[in-house]
Amino acid sequence: MSQQLKKLQAVKGMNDLLPEESPYWQYLEAQIAETVQGYGYQEIRFPILEATELFKRSIGEVTDIVEKEMYTFDDRNGDSLTLRPEGTASCVRACEEHQMLYNRATLTQKLWYTGPMFRYEKPQKGRLRQFHQFGVEAYGYLGPDVDAELLMMTARLWRVLGIDQAVTLQINSLGSNESRRAYRDALVAYLEARKDQLDEDSQRRLTTNPLRILDSKSAKTQSLLDGAPDLADYLDEESRQHFAQLQELLKGAGVDFTVNTRLVRGLDYYGKTVFEWVTDRLGAQGTVCAGGRYDKLVEQLGGKPTPAVGFAMGLERLILLLQELNAFPEEISRATDVYVVAVGEVMPQAFALAEVLRANSPYLRVQVNCGGGNFKTQLKKADRSGAEIALILGETEAAAGEVGVKYLRTEDPQTTIKQEDVSTLIF
């Protein structure tokens, strides 16, 4: 007797996207892409796999991502490769490799990308090991104007999606590398004297990445930080002016925000502006979009000094938020608009009718009944498809050049029209 094979399942934290879910993703991705393209951003695509060194040099070797969360392995040549944990480093690498940031008529780039990212984390609602991000990067813009434009753009997106009342904007400035180092020293000195009061994770970060203690989830640590030095007091004059101008631009555009001096972000490459759009509708996983400036990253990865700013938004969390708020349009869950019922020897005519309808109304989703079945069976299939209208084509209708029209979601009476008039139906 052969041994029964173990049932195969998806890797933990890496979920399937089923057909009934995909319309919501397609809707969200289309709305984001349309919005950012309206601001002059162009799509870029890059590999899922990168050299591990890219992320060590960009994200920072002592960050949680590099230390604990990356999927890293040696390939057959012995090269260390990593599934990308975020998109910014890959975007910079691609721009550098293809000389997009210099040797061209323009030294500026506005780019967007979307796709899966990978981090080894404890799977929970809104946090997966394979997750999807939509990212935007702007290169070559030094002033706060493009920072403000990014935030205006995201504010517009929230209005388009109908979730603007459920998200709030938090901003901060991390200053220059020099001012940040001075603040880091002051913060470490303050916390070292109180080390025994810190939570275990913050004690570890005290010697590796102390600024991350500022966004600790421990209530006791947050209480301890109330008396800590304030990052705003250590900002250099250039960063202070940059941040003040950003706030003025946002106020002028009517974009509400809160200054959160403990907002630092989890990646080493950020400087000056950082921001998060957060919601209280998803429990602990409240950040739906985050980013900031990384003016030193291009140079850090071997390129010429190039100012840069960008953000990434988690699509899983946005899907959850839209569902929580019932913000998805009702019709996007429908896979079919028109179902063609074909009874008898009429399949050639049914296919021809459907092709005419698709050609004249390309936005419609038209499904022809395949697999046979009597009239009653096909009508049940038409109803289950979610279609608004069933077009009924039998041998009598085909011979007369007509088609029956049955409305499946309204009380309108069934009617018969000429086949050439089918495209005049109002959906």
Overview of this structure, please?
35% of the residues are buried. The chain starts with 21 loop residues before the first helix and ends in a 9-residue tail after the last strand. It has 14 helices and 16 strands. An 8-stranded mixed beta sheet has the order 1-5-6-11-10-9-7-8. A 5-stranded mixed beta sheet has the order 13-12-14-15-16, sandwiched between helices. The chain has a 3-stranded antiparallel beta sheet with strand order 2-4-3. The protein has 427 residues and is an alpha+beta fold. Helices cover 34% and strands 19% of the residues. The protein has helices spanning 22-37, 52-58, 64-69, 88-97, 144-161, 177-192, 200-205, 219-224, 237-252, 297-300, 315-324, 347-360, 375-384, 395-400, and strands spanning 42-43, 49-51, 72-74, 80-83, 109-118, 130-139, 168-173, 258-259, 273-278, 287-293, 308-314, 338-342, 366-368, 389-393, 402-407, 415-418. Helix 12 links the parallel strand 12 and strand 13 (366-368).
